[in-house]
Write a structure and sequence with these properties.
Radius of gyration: 14 Å
Number of domains: 1
Number of helices: 1
Structural class: alpha+beta
């Protein structure tokens, strides 16, 4: 089972990955600084789930978004707030080739399912309560 991480552990994971530096990798063909629909160019077989932000003791996580200063959901500068949507439904995935970390979740609508992905950056993680 994938281990749950809170905001502090998420920052530690991200900092470790950032400190190791990254080799050139095809996982970065599409910029993933903000949320994106998962690009077809991304080889999913290289991604390994290393943690989750979904708490087992929270069967119905909030759909509230954390958007200080009305920052947009898709913005590369949007904070990563693990207790808020969509982060509270994310897995933390690592590229087995370069070590970059990504947040991933599945957005479901009435007629579609969209796998979304965003690069994890330690400096954007904010531990704010709902």
């Amino acid at each position: 089972m994938t281990p749950y991480v809170d905001a502090a552990a998420l920052v530690a994971l991200a900092q470790r990955a950032e400190e190791n530096g990254w080799a050139p990798c095809s996982c970065t063909k599409t910029p993933l600084d903000g949320w994106q629909s998962q690009p077809l160019s991304l080889d999913e077989t290289r991604l390994v789930e290393v943690a989750t932000l979904m708490r087992e003791d929270d069967p119905e996580p909030t759909f509230a978004e954390y958007r200080p200063a009305n920052v947009q959901y898709w913005s590369p500068d949007a904070p990563i707030a693990p207790r808020y949507f969509p982060y509270n439904r994310c897995g933390v995935w690592e590229c087995s080739e370069c070590g970059r970390l990504y947040l991933r979740y599945t957005e479901g609508g009435g007629y579609f399912v969209d796998r979304r992905i965003r690069a994890l950056k330690a400096g954007l993680v904010e531990d704010v309560g709902v």
